[in-house]
């Protein structure tokens, strides 16, 4: 069926020349405007059966997008992260990554393909030439814009073609769930893990260098030793996460040099244990001045006084180092009497 077979009243009106345009140039209008070429009507414009086929095609693509989004979520939940598959010609790849990429790509592609097919086959494709107008629109132009918008909404058939409208809304509403599911991959909820470390009552203090528990007699006055909790091994999967909170330095002072009452009570025979993690940005503290009992963070020179509750005496750190309460078990080994009384690390107090 062609446009010649359709009564004139059923065909869209042809657009003429823009205002002021002429077919032949003259002195007043030196540039001729030949106008727009004759409009070729699409089969969907003149055959409602073809329009229905296009409508079903668009709805099918939007439905595929919804199914792909559901597949994305199902793949994320059911496929183990360590499973691999062979895909020619790529080779062995992660089954989870392959499924997520395939379903997410399909969901996006079907939404785009459906929108493009809808625009090319069902929305109006008549070319319209309009006059340029000042930036500040006049009331007449504003009225025309609103009228054109209403006309465009009518021509899109969004209200009349409910199947397309409902499936499009379904695809667009369901697809963002993929992003919500991806947020779960940021890791488990922290809960109160930041407030606790691997230290607990009875955990022995193990020398980081020798991997052996320490006796009080092994710690000389003025020495600095780094220790870790008993049972925390470098081969453990969570070692780096745990040692980042549980790293401790011990120093032996003369009991008479300790100024802070709580520090003296939480020490053993002058041996004090403090977190090694600087309270500025979390750098490991490693420098010790024996004569002043000061420890220095090498990153930004925050300085703490270990003889006075590890308070900050210089630098950008905002808090004293948390102290670990220690004692000695019946075998003479140094042990923790609990966890830190406050969270370790930088600026945790302000964050909650």
From TrEMBL:
Family label? Belongs to the Rieske iron-sulfur protein family.
Keyword Endoplasmic reticulum assigned: no
What GO molecular functions are on record for this protein? 2 iron, 2 sulfur cluster binding; metal ion binding; monooxygenase activity; oxidoreductase activity, acting on paired donors, with incorporation or reduction of molecular oxygen
Q: What is this protein called?
A: Cytochrome bc1 complex Rieske iron-sulfur subunit
What keywords would UniProt list here? 2Fe-2S, Cell membrane, Disulfide bond, Electron transport, Iron, Iron-sulfur, Membrane, Metal-binding, Oxidoreductase, Respiratory chain, Transmembrane, Transmembrane helix, Transport
Naming one, the record's GO cellular component terms include: plasma membrane
- One Pfam family, short name please? QcrA_N
Ranges of residues in domain Rieske: 245-335
**Entry's transmembrane regions:** 58-79, 85-116, 163-183
Keyword Transcription regulation attached: no
Q: Which domain of life is it from?
A: Bacteria
Q: What does this protein do?
A: Iron-sulfur subunit of the cytochrome bc1 complex, an essential component of the respiratory electron transport chain required for ATP synthesis. The bc1 complex catalyzes the oxidation of menaquinol and the reduction of cytochrome c in the respiratory chain. The bc1 complex operates through a Q-cycle mechanism that couples electron transfer to generation of the proton gradient that drives ATP synthesis.
Against SUPFAM superfamilies, the record matches this protein to: ISP domain
Segment forming the signal sequence: none
Membrane topology field: Multi-pass membrane protein
Q: Which organism is it from?
A: Streptomyces adustus
Task: Write out the annotated subcellular location.
Answer: Cell membrane
């Amino acid at each position: 069926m062609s446009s010649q077979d359709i009564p004139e009243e059923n065909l869209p009106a042809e657009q003429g020349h823009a205002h002021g345009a002429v077919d032949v140039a003259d002195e007043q209008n030196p540039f001729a405007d030949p106008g727009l070429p004759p409009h070729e009507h699409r089969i969907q414009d003149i055959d409602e059966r073809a329009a229905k086929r296009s409508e079903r095609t668009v709805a099918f693509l939007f439905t595929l997008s919804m199914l792909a989004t559901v597949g994305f979520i199902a793949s994320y939940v059911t496929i183990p992260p360590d499973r691999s598959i062979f895909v020619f010609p790529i080779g062995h790849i992660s089954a989870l990554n392959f499924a997520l990429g395939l379903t997410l790509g399909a969901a996006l592609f079907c939404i785009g393909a459906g929108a493009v097919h809808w625009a090319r086959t069902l929305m109006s494709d008549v070319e319209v030439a309009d006059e340029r107008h000042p930036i500040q629109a006049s009331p007449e132009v504003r009225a025309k814009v609103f009228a054109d918008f209403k006309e465009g909404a009518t021509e899109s058939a969004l209200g009349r073609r409910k199947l397309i409208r409902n499936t499009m809304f379904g695809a667009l509403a369901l697809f963002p769930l993929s992003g919500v599911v991806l947020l779960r991959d940021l890791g488990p909820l922290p809960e109160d893990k930041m407030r606790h470390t691997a230290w607990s009552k009875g955990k022995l203090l193990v020398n980081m260098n020798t991997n052996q528990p320490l006796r009080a007699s092994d710690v000389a006055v003025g020495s600095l030793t780094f220790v870790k909790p008993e049972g925390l091994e470098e081969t453990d999967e969570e070692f780096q996460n745990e040692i980042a909170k549980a790293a401790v330095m011990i120093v032996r002072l003369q009991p008479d040099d300790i100024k802070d009452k709580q520090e003296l009570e939480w020490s053993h025979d002058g041996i004090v244990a403090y977190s090694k993690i600087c309270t500025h940005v979390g750098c490991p503290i490693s420098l010790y001045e024996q004569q002043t009992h000061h420890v220095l963070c090498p990153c930004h020179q925050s300085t703490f006084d270990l003889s006075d509750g590890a308070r900050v005496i210089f630098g950008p750190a905002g808090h004293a180092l948390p102290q670990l309460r220690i004692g000695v078990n019946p075998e003479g080994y140094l042990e923790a009497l609990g966890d830190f009384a406050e969270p370790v690390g930088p600026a945790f107090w302000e964050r909650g």
